[in-house]
Amino acid sequence: MDPQAVPEDEHQINLVIAHDQGHLWNVRDVKLAWTKYRIVGYLVGALPRHPHQSTMMGLPLKLLPEEVTLLLEKGFAKPITYQEMAELPSSNILDTFKDLREKCYHEQIVAAVQQRKQEIETFVDTILEGKAKKIEKRKKANSAVVEKEKNELTRENVIREEMRKIQKLPEHYQVIEIFTENPFIDNLRPVAADWTFPTSKMDKLRYAVFKDVWEHDQYLTAGVKFGGDFLVYPGDPHLFHATFIIKCVEDMECVNNNDLVSWSRIATATKKTLVLATLDQYGKVSYQSFKFIEDEFS
Amino acid sequence: MDSSLFTSGEELLNARGRDQTLPVVGEKLTEASGSWLEKQQVEARIEEHRRLLAEPKFVRRDQLATGEWLKESGMVRVLHETGKFWQYMGAETDIGKCLYPEEALYLIDTGELEVSYGDVALSLQQAQTVMLQDAHHVDQYLVYAHLSRTGCKVVRHQTHLVYTRYETQIGIDRHQVSKKGVKLKLKGKNKSNEAQRNKGKINTKNEALDEVMKEFYDILGPSTGSSSTPHATDTKKENSNKAKGDSKTVKEHIPEEEFTPYEKKRRELLDMLPTMQGEKIMSVSVEPKQFLPKNSIPIKPIYQISLEALNYYSLYDTTPQNVYNRREKYDNWNRKGEPWCKEGNKKYQDNRAHWTGACESDCTDWRKENAQFSVQWNKGCERDREKRRYRVRWDNNRDVKRRQYNRDGWMYGREQRGEDNLGWREQHWRHHDDRCAQPSHFNRQALDDEHRRDYDDNEHERILNQHTNERGLDGPEEGTIDYTKKPEWKTRRRRWQRKDVPFYPSCIVRLNRKVNSWKEYKRIVKEMSADKLLADGPGQTLWRGPTTPLIRPAMATSIQSVLSGCSMKNESIASSSMFNKEKLPQDMHLTIHYDVYLATVPYKKTDPGLPSKRITVMRDRNMPTPGQILEVSTRFHDDVPIVGAVVVNGEVRLYTLTSLTLPQPIDSLR
């Protein structure tokens, strides 16, 4: 992929900036970020099918500040914010909401009838058998009436009779959807948002390292789990473990030896390699990896 | 209008039967070969993940709680409640049940609550925009959600569950502290969210704390009723731990604010309470405002005063030590036959500090004029109505005011005395008031002719002088109080300190402090008798006085007990850390945001108990400094661990900030 080419609109991500943080609320944008732009992010919402656990999370996808800056710099995303979301909804939105809720309810009524019909058709043979047995039992009492009933006992009649019994889906049984992304977002006016990261020296160093590693076709995520700044993956994090823990230091010479030992022990214990990254005198990122090796002679 | 973001009714209905279990994630690889197979695997996993994320959140209408967002109050009012979340979430307010923003957000996220704003249901995206103020607020919400997902019950930090050392010592923390009817006031809010929320928080916090303190005072002694009819009662000082009041309603979730200087002073005052000794405690209600000095602001409506301590420490006291037995005194008077009537008595036995007992209802005309004064009359003897008591009011500045009486024992009415008229006693007191350059003398002009005739200047001087000691200050009569010896009221209950009373070891010894069991009592008595033996034994010079050896002979049973005698107590460490607390600027103190109750700990709003952990959310990914850790870990006098939550790019990391006590190496000393 040519990083200089400006992508088309359909490949543009709507990056919503709120409270100085960037989130992706749309599944389409999330997949685009994962597949096309190698931006991984971190899911912070509840998974719809199983909300009360924290191993597998759902939308929204929170992006690192470095990821946001990269997307903006490369032109892959537009930073937007919606002022109208903080205000009361307009009458237009209110009417649309009510109409759509009503429409959803009616669709559910129809769908409920269809579901019930399918159930009946599935079990019509069983129902037929049961009715036939009952008729046999009553045959002895009044054979003439029973004969008539027996003739009328057909699949269609049974289905018709069961369908007549179907009641309309009551309102309190209707299924309500709770939205993650604002369903009226297309009707809101997006406003260009300000994004000022990076500002401090350390932030600039971190972003330079992030961008350099990204441009080497690697995947990066936050490294706080292992005490580092970033984790580097050889491929998509869905399939691969991280191989490097990157720690950004301003001056390689000033790194404390004890810290170096503790960082490298953590990396080795988790089967990764510690990499210290810094900016050289020319402003280019330079790397130094460390591996902890047990003394062969001890 | 593009309605593609709305799932169709059919899909929603079909989604009811979807599998709710989590899919199993396959193994991950460590090295990438770039093969076609790996690409297919990646695509499959991403697609499966995308499908999981795209599933709609839905709930049946009758199982969905509803609420509405109140922008001015910053809360969500619950309109329809379902499920069990109310058991540990939300707060009672004057407009109904309300949820805090982070609680409402979490319930929206898990699909249990629908919040409407302007009659339109809020999506999670819009709810976060509307309910959260800034990045730190977002971090707090993430911490809340992270802990709640694991099953913990997370509530806002409740300051009324914070007890001082003294309160823990007397066991007040074991009892119900909430008061019925304490609710957040949200009605009629016109101001901004932030100002209103803070105002509501502070008011409820102070209100709740005051209620706690009020209940504490009630435990010390029965209250005297409303302040509109103040009268003093003698009460025994009780360290009873009976929980007062009826069943309580939901307590407020009061987030901790930094303590104001007022609050600090109040807590210091509370810590002073253990120094009060003496038998009789008087509950004194504060006078109505018009009778107080102009600039005085009473902190509380009822004050507890130790009568004997007051008398002992008061410079104005002139009471002979045998006056406390009022009955005896009256009998003496009766026997002596010295009525204080106008005709007979030239002596002016004034200015004894008598404290009133229960207010008697039979009163004279002047009492109708001055309804706040209580006078006890000797029933059946009109001549003895001169027996008068002074009402002592003790306000914050420890000024003692006396009411003006004439020689007949009649209280001067306000009209007679005049608004600015001071009693001769008061003006004498004002000699010591720096604000008065010259004492104003008794305004005799205010007296009517009859009383002025009766007033004897010489008598006045004698009375003034009798209360003036060598330094010219208002003081006790000579020989009235001997400050070199322990006063009788202090030694009265200590039988072994009276030389003339033999010490009976078989009798129940009264202790100064409360004990929780017979075992503890016996241990303390045993220690006391051992101390007595030491103090009377051959090494008494060692054991008498304020400085005694650290290790007592009774401790010489094991090295462990000897070491425990030598070890520094926790209180001293805590008190030395007070220095650090003061050195740490107030704005650097960590704010406790949440109290967490683990999933296995039963939680009831009406009686939550101590939390399992207290959480403070750090700002801007910073870790707490050592000073902050020391301050926050010594702020509370209970064993609840403090946990610092650091949110880094959406990931919540929890770090325990409580100090550990390392075990003592006893083995190395043997």
UniProtKB/TrEMBL annotation, chain A:
InterPro entries: tRNA_intron_Endonuc_cat-like, TSEN34, TSEN34_N. Keywords: Endonuclease, Hydrolase, Lyase, Nuclease, tRNA processing. Transmembrane segments: none annotated. One of its GO terms (molecular function) is tRNA-intron lyase activity. CDD domains: tRNA-intron_lyase_C (cd22363). It comes from the Eukaryota. GO terms for biological process: tRNA-type intron splice site recognition and cleavage. Residues 14-80 form the TSEN34 N-terminal domain. Its EC number is 4.6.1.16. It holds the Pfam family TSEN34_N. Residues 205-287 form the tRNA intron endonuclease catalytic domain. PANTHER family: TRNA-SPLICING ENDONUCLEASE SUBUNIT SEN34, TRNA-SPLICING ENDONUCLEASE SUBUNIT SEN34-RELATED. Constitutes one of the two catalytic subunit of the tRNA-splicing endonuclease complex, a complex responsible for identification and cleavage of the splice sites in pre-tRNA. It cleaves pre-tRNA at the 5'- and 3'-splice sites to release the intron. The products are an intron and two tRNA half-molecules bearing 2',3'-cyclic phosphate and 5'-OH termini. There are no conserved sequences at the splice sites, but the intron is invariably located at the same site in the gene, placing the splice sites an invariant distance from the constant structural features of the tRNA body. Belongs to the tRNA-intron endonuclease family. This is tRNA-splicing endonuclease subunit Sen34.
UniProtKB/TrEMBL annotation, chain B:
Belongs to the SEN54 family. It comes from Homarus americanus. Residues 52-116 form the tRNA-splicing endonuclease subunit Sen54 N-terminal domain. Transmembrane segments: none annotated. Residues 220-250, 463-486 are annotated as: Disordered. GO terms for biological process: tRNA-type intron splice site recognition and cleavage. Residues 223-232 have a biased composition (Polar residues). Coiled coil: none annotated. This is tRNA-splicing endonuclease subunit Sen54-like. The lineage of its organism: Eukaryota, Metazoa, Ecdysozoa, Arthropoda, Crustacea.
